[in-house]
Every structure is written in C-alpha cells, then in structure tokens.
Amino acid sequence: MEEKKIISFGRGVPATEALISVQTEITNALKVVMNNYGTGLLQYKTSGLTDFNGFIPLKKVIAERFPVSGDPNKRVLITNGGMETISLLLNSAKKRGIVISEERTYDRFITAAEICGHRVVGVRLVRDGIDLEALEETMAQNSPLFFYQIPFHQNPCGLSASPDNIREAARLCRKYHVIHILDVAYLELRYDGNQNFAIPLDEDDFQNTCSAGSFTKTISPGLKCGFGILPEGVMDLVTPTVANTRLNPNYVGQAAIYHLIESGFYDQHLAYLCVLYAPRMAALKLALKRQLPELDIWPLTGGFFTLLRFHGIKVEKLESFDPMGQKKAQLRAEALVNAAEKRGVTIEWAIGCKPSNFRYSSLNTDVEVRITFPALSPREITEGIKGLAEAYYEVSDQ
Q: End of a domain among 222, 243, 266?
C-alpha cells in the first residue's frame, strides 16, 4: 500500500525547482570568483577587497541597487543573513529596553530580542500597514529603542504596507529617536506583476531607518548571505559589536552572489521566481476562497506566507482556571493541528509570532495558523487546503 504523502504548510523554504535553477550558476560563480580573487577570499581580510563588514564589491553593488549615497563601507554591512543583521542591531544597544514590533511578526525576531534582554511590545496591524496612531502612542509612552517592521509580504500575515504608511512610520521613528529596522527579505518577491515601493533611504524621513535584507529566499539558504543598509551613525554604533562578534563573514559566498548580480543572472532568476510562484499563490487564494470562504484573509501579493484565523474550535475539556486563556488556546490549536495531521496536512500554530501583549486573551477563541506556499505545487496546495478545511469543520462549530 502506497504511503500517503504529507503536505506541509510549515516552514517557509524555497521551492526545489528554484534551487535547481541556481545550482549550475552557483557552481560556475564559485569557480569564477576563486579564479579572479584567489586567496584574497580565503584570508581574514584583504586590503581593498574584504573587511570584517564584508566583500567590498558586493557592498558597492548593494548600495547602487537599493540605492544609497555615500561610502558603501560606511553604509552597507554584509552578514550571514537578514536575521544576523537584525541581531547585531539589537545587541549594539547600549542599554536594554522596549522594542516595538507589529502585533504579528517574525517569531525569530521576538526570540532574538528577548535573548538580548529587550521586551517586545506589539502594535496593531491594519490593512495598509501599522496602526500609526497606536504606534505613536506606544512610542510616546515607552521610549523604545527600536521599531521592527516587515513592510512587504509580511511574515506571517503576507500583508504589504502602503508607501504612505511606511513613510509615516519612518517619520515617527525620527521624531521619537527610535531606530527603525525595515526587514525587506521579500522586497523583490512580488508575483502580481507590480513592484514594491523603493524605500528612499537617503531622504530626511528615513534618517533613522535601517534596511535588513537577505539572499536566502531569492538565491539559496545555503549560501548564508544577508545585508544591512544603515545610517552612518548607526553603523558606528554597530561596528564594535560586529568586530567583537566575528572576525570575518563568508567572503567566498558573498563573492559568488556579487558575480550572480553583476552577470545579470540574479535579475533573470528573480523573474523566474515570480513566474514559478505566481500560480502557487493563485492556487492558494482560489483554494481558500472555495474551501474556507468564511475566513477573512489578509491581502496577498507575494512573499512566502499568509495567516489564517480559525474561529469557534471546540474542545471537550476546558480548564476552569485559565485567566490568560493560554491553556484554552493551546487545546484549541492542538485540536486543529491533530485533525489536519490525520488528513496528511502539517500546519503550525502561529502563537510564537505574537509579542506577549497580544499572545493570549481569555476572550479570544481563535486559532491562527501561518501558511507557507512556495515550496508546494499548485496541486499540493489545493489538496492541502481541502484537507485543512475538512479538519477545521470537524473540530469547529461552523
């Protein structure tokens, strides 16, 4: 008897087809850069080529691509991923304090901030981005150190903020002397034929804004390369932390990515990814509309994720003393996860994506699930959402 295939809506990873399409190019790029730069990529630092902030030609290309003025060595930091960029910023703070994020955000950001000793406070999301009135109130009351925002195809919701919303959030950060961290990991991954807002980091509104990006989703997680574009004053703040954290990053991988960009392959590959992922996004949206029409779905135009909120899930036994609603929420989530698993569908409860002030409520009977789709075929997505819908109707009052 053939074993039933598991359809996983869990971890957000690139499609196998995407990795196959870059495999030969990465191999060739590594040969080219080793021939061109030789031991200069293998030593701790090589004057004019590498420093502890990264491969210098790649820094120049990133500064041109986004774009920012000034000396790239004073504005661009190359790291082992977007999350390392963010962690370095969090660790560079001279004191520990309040960090603001969106009410649902990248769970590893919350973990990283808490490990650093910061406390994360969430601010409500609206359809065009962050709730600006609530953001200003939170800044005025808490004197936060950072505001972390995922402006494009947000993880976990999939929501993209409007240009006006992004700009006004940057203005508020400047007004209240808060370092604004924009995580732009999905900036170039939009599948509806449009382009995202090009953040004008040199404009006055964005004087406190840092942009943290990554090539993890666009090229390969295995190359481990990300970047930060920082104001010079913030770079000065971060530099001692970088120097004391590492002696050098992965110059070989960075040089390969530089070659992929300079050769024109990177832009061709981005176009391929949009063609590859667009029908998968369309399949997800259609399946949700057909199978779970009562759910309120966040606007989805690209990226890797969307968030589903399931209402009215029943459980046989609820704890009588549960003032924060934690045990009730966990029981409801387990009921949905287990029912989906019986149908060969793997899902993950998104509770870790909420800062503590949004995590539990005794009045909240919803279960939120983060769904990722690029690694699945349209057929798998359709079948998986059908199984998830069946699981939901089994355990709910609907």
A: 266
For residue 117, what are its two tokens? 């000793």
What the block records as the tokens of 264 is 């024109």
Domain count, the chain: 2
Considering the domain architecture, whether residues 295 and 196 belong to the same structural domain is answered as: no
Tell me how far apart the alpha carbons of residues 179 and 176 are, in angstroms, rounded to a whole number: 9
Phi (first) and psi of residue 235, to 5 degrees: -60, -40
Residue 233 structure tokens? 């004053």
Q: 31: domain range?
A: 22-266
Contact at 8 Å (CB) between 42 and 382? no
Strand partners of residue 181? 148, 210
Q: Are 120 and 356 in contact (CB under 8 A)?
A: yes
Distance between CA atoms of residues 353 and 89, nearest Å: 20
1 inside domain: no
pLDDT of residue 112: 97
Of the residues 266, 301, 334, the one at which a domain ends:
266
Closest to 303 in 3D by CA, of 203, 138, 169, 153:
153
CA torsion angle 135 137 139 142 (round to 10): -130
Rounded CA-CA distance 390/313 in Å is: 13
The overall average pLDDT reported for the chain is: 94
Q: Residue 323: which pLDDT band, with cuts at 50, 70 and 90?
A: low
> What is the pLDDT averaged over residues 55-78?
96
- For residue 135 the two structure tokens come to 């953001």
Residues 6+ apart with CB under 8 A from 83: 108, 109, 112, 214, 226
pLDDT by residue (tens digit) across 267-308? Answer: 999 999 999 999 999 999 999 999 999 998 899 999 999 999
Name every residue whose Cβ is closer than 8 Å to that of residue 149 and which is 6 or more positions away in sequence.
101, 102, 129, 130, 161, 166, 169, 180, 181, 182, 183
pLDDT level of residue 3 (50, 70, 90 thresholds): low
Of the candidates 204, 184, 156, 207, the residue with the CA atom closest to the CA atom of residue 347: 156
- CA–CA separation, 370 and 182 (whole Å): 21
Instruction: Tell the residue number behind the tokens 């939170």, with chain if given.
Output: 138
Q: Is the pLDDT of residue 363 over 90?
A: no
* Residue 1, pLDDT score: 43
Tell me the residue ranges of DSSP E strands in 160-225. 179-183, 209-214
**DSSP bridge pairs for 51:** 54
